[in-house]
Amino acid sequence: MRLFGIETEYGITRDDVPEIDPVVESMELVRAHLEASFERRWDYAGEDPHEDARGFRVSGLQQDREEDDFATRDAHRPFSFHDMKSDLVLPNGARFYNDHTHPEYSTPECRTLKDLVAHDRTGERILLRAAQRRNKVLGGEHVRLYKNNTDFHGHSYGCHDNYLVARSIPFPNLVAGLVPFLVSRQVIAGAGKVGTEAQESGYVPGPYQLSQRADFMEAELGVDTMHNRPILNTRDEPHADRMKYRRLHLIIGDANMCEYATALKVGTTQLVLDLIERGAAPDCELDQPVTAVKQLSRDPDLKTVVKLVNGQKLSAVDIQESYYEAASRMLSGIDEETDWLLREWSETLSLLSRDRSRLVGKLDWVTKQWLLESFMREERIGWDDPWLTSLDLEYHNIHPDQGLYLGLEAEGKAWRMTTDEAIEEAIRNGPTDTRGGLRGLCVQRFPGQIKSMQWERIQFTGGIRSRNLDMGDLFDPQEVRRCAHIFQTAGSPSEALAAWSHRKDRAI
After folding, report:
1. What DSSP element (H or E) covers 452?
2. pTM, entire model
3. Most buried among 38, 84, 310, 405, using CB within 10 Å?
4. By the 8 A CB rule, do 135 and 123 touch?
């Protein structure tokens, strides 16, 4: 059932004005991607963030109140809510839109780590090119974009990894198996950060830590994403057949520049989900997970131990090793990708303990720490020097001539899973074995005949038969390819829908 994707909100700024309006700038950036005028197509009817996976529906979210405040403040603007969102579905099946104050890129659904990494990097290219078009209009390199999670003023924006999960897995099992793993996952997936930060108190310069999101985790479980942020988000919005599936929506992750970190972050999480499905996840229940996620983040020496409910005390690496050992016993030999993950997971945990320098260019927090410490030695400054905050930010700059990480990559000092050619292909087309690629194919072939779209459904205009392509249960890769072939060869959406419906009827 392996299926996953990443949503990334990018930081945006503009250096030619005294005060940026991030709502307008994010909207203008998304619009800069277009060669034609914006047409509203995204269907928000399928989105309902109030359903909770614990079996109830919340009457209101803190983010609802913030959205109401946004609406009040935005009332003076000369455009509608839908104009502001500027929601686009791209020819590769990705979604690109303005999430109020941040441009957001959501990859198409992917089945392999190579596809996922390529499509994650594709987001960087698409946003960079949109910024270049926007800057031509502005007359200078004024708009800058950052693939990070903090503005160093007490605000955090997200990088959410998502997974298709069987509804048959009891949600308490997901909680028990995932929370300790997610709290400790930052030793692999943390983006690194100078200082500490909170929404209430703002930014405080100081020592280095592993994760940018750890400071903003305030609850173990919860359905909110903008306030009282949980380690494990309980939103029950499957974007699929609700009777069969749930979508695990994780908001704790950092945005990664390193391809290796992205692959390990998503790949190891998928392996842990496989363990949970088999009832084989290790028992590592934490006594105080919210406290633990901050404590572990603030110790880049990885010596801090946190208390488990059973009284045992383990470090982040210890917890990760428990999960790796269980996965190695249960999942080894399943397929080539799983075996690669197990080898790299084991090697990474070993190197974190004995020779971290070999992880430069592979893990973001290690790479950034190495860069900053090299600079500190040259300039003879300490961790509280404000100079480091700007360097921290520039590590995540997605402009190849400005970003510190991309500079290392250009010098051949960063590990690559994908290639520039694969990224360019991912800009043009989505994965051939998921509905994301099918969604993109429909955008390519019938752009003028799409009335509305959402993750699991496309509604076409015209025709006398059913006008909807329902993809709520379309996850088998062979079925996806068969459907794609029909839409690739059909002369119209009506012809394709009729052929697909006839094929399904015969199968029944």
Report:
1. strand 450-454
2. 0.94
3. 405
4. no
Number of helices (H) and strands (E), helices first, in the chain?
A: 17, 19
Q: How many residues are there in the chain? A: 508
Rounded distance between C-alpha atoms, residue 424 and residue 426, angstroms: 5
CA 228 to chain CA centroid, nearest Å:
19
pLDDT score recorded for residue 61: 62
Percentage of the chain surpassing pLDDT 90? Answer: 82
pLDDT tens-digit map of 209-268: 999 999 999 999 998 777 789 999 998 899 999 999 999 999 999 999 999 999 999 999
Determine contact, residues 166/277, Cβ cutoff 8 Å: yes
Residue 259: HSE in the Cβ half-sphere, 13 Å Cα cutoff = 24
Task: Using alpha carbons, select from 121, 137, 153 the residue that is nearest to residue 25.
Answer: 137
With beta carbons less than 8 A apart as the criterion, state whether 473 and 241 touch: yes
Distance CA 28, CA 175 (A): 40
Q: Which positions are catalytic?
A: 99
* 127-160 b/e (C-beta count within 10 Å ≥ 16 → b): bbebbebbbeeeeeebbbbbbbbbbbebbbbbbb
Locate 346 and state its tokens.
Answer: 């084991």
Question: So what's the pLDDT on residue 70?
Answer: 57
Average pLDDT over residues 266-278: 98
Q: Does domain 4-421 sit in CATH 3.30.70?
A: no
Q: What is the mean pLDDT of residues 45-49?
A: 76
Q: Where residue 462 falls among pLDDT bands split at 50, 70, 90?
A: confident
CB neighbours of residue 108 within 10 Å: 27
Neighbours of 69 (CB within 10 A): 10
List the chain domain ranges. 4-421, 434-507
346-373 pLDDT, tens digit per residue, is: 999 999 999 999 999 999 999 999 999 9
- Report the alpha-carbon distance of residue 71 to residue 96 in Å, rounded: 21
The mean pLDDT of 427-444, rounded to a whole number, is 98
What is the distance between the alpha carbons of residues 48 and 216, in angstroms, rounded to a whole number? 24
List helix spans (H) across 278-335.
289-297, 316-331
Q: 235 by DSSP, 3-state: which?
A: strand
Answer whether residue 496 shows pLDDT above 70: yes
- What does the alpha-carbon distance between residue 241 and residue 472 come to, in Å, rounded to a whole number? 5
- For β-strands 230-233 and 219-222, DSSP reports them as parallel
- Specify the residue for token string 């379309």: 474
pLDDT at 154: 87
Could you identify the residue written with the tokens 């209430």? Answer: 200
Hey, CA dihedral for 398, 399, 402, 406, is it positive or negative?
A: positive
- Using CA atoms, how far residue 336 sits from 42, 212, 248, 389, in Å, is 37, 32, 24, 41
- Assess whether pLDDT exceeds 90 at residue 66: no
pLDDT at 492: 94
- CA dist 350 and 352 (Å) reads 5
